[in-house]
Amino acid sequence: MHPTFPPAKFQSFSEISDPDLIKPRVKKLRSLMQSKKLDAWLTPHSDVHRSESLPKNQRRLAHITGFTGSAGTAIIGTNNAALFVDGRYTMQAPLQTDTGIFEILEIPNEKPGAWAKNNLKPKAQIGFDPWLHTIAEIRSFNLQLKNHGVLLATENLIEKIWDDRPPPPFKNIELLEVGRAGVAAKEKILAIQNHLEDKNADALILNMPESICWLLNIRGRDVPNTPVVLAFAIVHKTKKPELFVDLKKLSPEQSQLLSAIVTLRTMEEFSVSLEKLAKDKARIWVDPTTCPDAIYKLLSEKGATIFEAPDPVVATKAIKNPTEVAGM
């Protein structure tokens, strides 16, 4: 007797994306682009923290295209548009977006900057949000564009037309004891400060939640699938790091405990601290593959010296301590 199996179940995207919503949204975006004298708008999947799994209020690419994959980029011109996805999503993307508006192109064979060069008019004005693109991404796009157009940093236009945008995530923060982390946060901070000393850098900018949470032994539930807190951090060579986070996520007891190892600040104070570093002519360590272009521009234009190198936390946390190994 042959075994029987239930019918195969295939993934469906109809419940989470409606291509019929895309046309009116793109129309609103193009109207706003025209008022800003922009010939195109560039938008990535990523948020400022380079997250793959995004909280609902950060899903800008999904809002304007309908595409809900974990990686992608779109360019919306006044009369044409393209959605760039990798090989995982060449079947999903056409089901979720309006293919009468968006041409679906597969990366790395097709590149956004090259598409812009070939499909936009000469000297096209291309708007982008500098907080959502890294230093390296903007350099790469400009190389592909080959002076055919100009990238213009501006406010985020998709947010302007997103009428029912959800609020930011609000989940409590968890502090890990040494028994769970294996190494105290103070020791981890000292190790990174030693890297700063070796490279003659005054401070390190962190926007990746994975690095920040590992360094400070904190966890959260701000994004799906990954137990991280959305935050920024500045690790100083000779004083306590600054942690920029929604302080309402911390209990009074947690705030007191964290204050022993970091200076707690609101998210809104991040730019203020960056400006102070720049005015002090500090030498600042940034990772060009993860650091937003906006941070680079702010620091360099205000007088800081930029040192570009990989985030040292990434390599440091890759070497697992016995407690971490036991927890695998």
From TrEMBL:
Domain annotation Creatinase N-terminal: ranges: 25-160
Record-linked Pfam families: Creatinase_N, Creatinase_N_2
Keywords: Aminopeptidase, Hydrolase, Protease
Keyword presence, Protease: yes
GO molecular function list: aminopeptidase activity
EC number, UniProt record: 3.4.11.9
InterPro entries: Creatin/AminoP/Spt16_N, Creatinase_N, X-Pro_aminopeptidase_P
Name the UniProt record assigns to this protein: Xaa-Pro aminopeptidase
Native organism taxonomy: unclassified sequences, metagenomes, ecological metagenomes
